[in-house]
Input
Amino acid sequence: MANTEQLKPYLLAFPGPLRDRLVAAVLSGEKTSTTGLLVEYEAEGEELPPVGERSALIDSDGREVAVLELTEVRVLPLGEVDLRHALDEGEGHRSVAEWRADHEAFWHGDEMREALGDPDFTVDDTTLVVAERFRVVRDLR
Output
């Protein structure tokens, strides 16, 4: 296995209670997908990760807790996210509407708007998102 110091960090949300819940859901096997904004990649000058890439899942304390491998990466309009993807995010949503309401609250939050450098940032059905699927290949705890 590669030294985890050489792996890119895999960050879910911002440090704090939400990241803690998401990391716990990954480690328990409940969370096998996640959704980000394409504009986040563009703002950071990053290319989309390729299928097969391995990354170190980082907790709120900055510790590497698992090695993840991407099994699928799709770019699609927000309005096309389906129920399977929403359920596989492991956050307890029972519908796409619930999933979307939570994600919009996050994406419209102050931390995300600050990270994007746009205090008025909003999403709609046409906003491009990056839907990723992954698997835990190694638990580092």
